[in-house]
Amino acid sequence: MSRGGGQGGHRDGPGDEQGVDAPLGALAEAVELGEGRVAEADLAAARRVAARAGERRALSSEHTVVGFFGATGSGKSSLLNAVAGAAVARTHVRRPTTSEALAAVWEPRGAEALLDWLEVRERRVMDRPFAGEGAAPLPVVLIDLPDFDSVALEHRAIAERLAGQVDVLVWVVDPQKYADAVIHRDFIAPLATHAAVTAAVLNQVDLLPPAEVPRVAASLEQLLRDDGLGRVLVLPVSARTGEGVEALRARIARFATERRAATERLAADVRAAAGRLEAAGTPGQVRGADAKALERGLAQAARVDAVAQAVAGSYRKRAGQATGWPVTAWLLRLAPDPLRRLHLAVGRSRDRDADLHRTSLPPMGPAQRAQAGQSVRGYADAAAAGLGDGWATAIRERAAEALEALPAELDRAVARTDLGARGSWWWQLLGAIQWLALVVAVVGGVWLLLPVLLPLWGMVAPTIPQVAGTETWFDGWPIPLLALLGGVALGVLLGLLGAVLGGAIGAARRARARRRLTAEVRRTAQEVVVAPIEGERERARAFAAAVARAIR
């Protein structure tokens, strides 16, 4: 429902309380997200605000608590008496007069627990309506506080504590000290976000010439605007003569009638606490070039080129063994297989457990570690651009953790990669032809030796047939000699052909292995480096959004 007393209609107390739920929830979310990334003092202040808000909302929502704050000699006690219409607070020429907070209470039912929470022991129950005879009852609590510039530290502590608890702040200044820098810097400016629940009173205007009052009031208004309280109007008042007292009473009555002061105070506390939290900033877009630089650096650290070269060397070796001239190809078996030497499978490796089948790549040396460190830190710096110091530090911590895990993770990435080093179908074809050529050459050679060997054993030497009638230069050549020479020549040619094919296909296998290894390194970079860093960036976005909702 709507209530009068202000500009436009306002929801009543319960509805207004619901309006602070979302900012309070956002502040709690920001505190949770900011753990370890925002100054602990700022988080603690936000927690105190949340706790105080919960405590205040559990107490009377009917009463509006108004605190009179002022420096020594400002006359706040006299002013409270004038507003209350009774000698409630003690006044004296000696300072400080007020050593403890004192409350004047209208409509005391339900106010006891509230005053206990405020730790205000001295209480005066008023027997006449706050706004005068015939006015509607207003549940109001006026609190006279010790001087906030008191030399007694316990007095100042009371004023500072209640400045964080009352619903409405009435700053009382006098013509002599209204411009005191300490008052503005240490007390008024820190509560600038509470302008909606603040009233400023220039007391003792009876000490000024009437013509000077507007000038001094305007000067005070400008000082308050400089403090950040742009919406606060200054009320010229004299507690001694009564000038302006009714206007101040009406201002307080409006706060009580609207019943928004407690909620607006809580909302202002939330905004102030959220404003203290370190802004997360806006994470910039990580460029594709930064991600590529990370992948290149990790690929070098993982020795992707060396492994891909081993794939090509292994393929050439095994191709030479399978397709080379059998008389000499066996020598290739004496050389170690480049892949097996690294404990890498030459066949399919997708089913291999990378934790059980580790590679025999040498541990990262200083050069590889430096390369990995430079690439990871470079990526972290790019990812932290635009963020506050706390979040940037958290990102660099994730980067340091990634660097610790990377040597083992990169080795696993290489071990689980299907390097595509399997043999080819043409090996068997050339190998079969090689053996056939060798058989033909051996048969031809033995045939040529038979006419020499058999007579030694008393056996008849066979006739060596010759090529005839072909009208080529082969005419007259012994057929066994042609078989011998042809078999050897074919074997050599097939060996050369196998070497050429092995080199070309090995180069293709090297390129394919490099692509697959690079893909696994990219996957490792995503899991070990990018994902944790992006998690921090997302957390920073959520934190900034929560702070924005709390301030809104």
TrEMBL record:
What's the domain of life for this entry? Bacteria
| UniProt key word Membrane | yes
Q: Sorted alphabetically, which keywords does the UniProt record give?
A: Membrane, Transmembrane, Transmembrane helix
Membrane in keyword set: yes
Provide the transmembrane region boundaries. Answer: 435-457, 477-507
- Pfam families under this entry? MMR_HSR1
Domain annotation G: ranges: 66-179
Gene3D superfamilies given in the database record: P-loop containing nucleotide triphosphate hydrolases (3.40.50.300)
Region annotation (Disordered) maps to 1-21
Specify the protein name: G domain-containing protein
